[in-house]
Amino acid sequence: MSVADVLLRLRELDQLVVLAHQQAGERGETEVWRGLGYKLEGAPVLTSMDELLEILSVPSRITPIPGTQRWMLGFVSLQGELLTVVDLECFLGGELMQLNDSSKMLVMRDRGQFFGLVVHDVLGIQRFQSRDMKSFERLEIHRDVFTFNKFDHEETEWPIISMAALLNDKRFRQSAMDSYSVPSQLQP
Residue 118 sits in which domain range? Predict the structure, then answer.
């Protein structure tokens, strides 16, 4: 199955989720959707709490990986597990950000590999009525490849970044897998 097929299937599944939430709302059922709010390129976005294992402060010591993309910050060891640490905004085409007190690391696991995605300007956990979820109309911003749904609240659009789509992105996976192999100039 190609990456395009996976992304198409994820979009179809997300549209089914939107439909299910709308139907639940029509029946008077109320379900609360929870996501972590943060900013990418100055705009608010969300990631579902269901896709995150943990939200942590960014470790002060990240071991850099020579010869990787600039958005690949390095490795950290967390509770005996090795995490690949990525600056999410930089991966999505933005600038490499300076870490600050509001920077957090979103920890996820995919296919036995752990990832820590660094985000900046964390806005906290946001709650929305599930029935208010809408399909997202794509713009020409790189993050939109990973965005299928959104919430609108008080004249603010909150796109939902699909971490499943991001972790299945060919460019992301290849760089993450390359980071686990020792560059040839470091081998004895």
Answer: 3-180
Domain presence at residue 186:
no
pLDDT tens sequence across 79-100: 888 999 999 999 988 888 888 8
Largest CA distance in the chain: 66
- Residue 49's nearest CA partner among 156, 150, 131, 126 is 126
| Number of domains observed in the structure of the chain | 1
Could you give phi then psi for residue 178, rounded to 5 degrees? -60, -30
In a domain, 185, yes or no: no
pLDDT digits (tens, 9 = 90+) for 95-131: 888 888 878 999 998 888 899 999 988 899 999 998 8
Q: In degrees to the nearest 10, what's the CA dihedral of 15, 16, 21, 27? A: 130
Q: Is residue 187 part of a domain?
A: no
Cα of 32 vs its chain's centroid, Å = 20
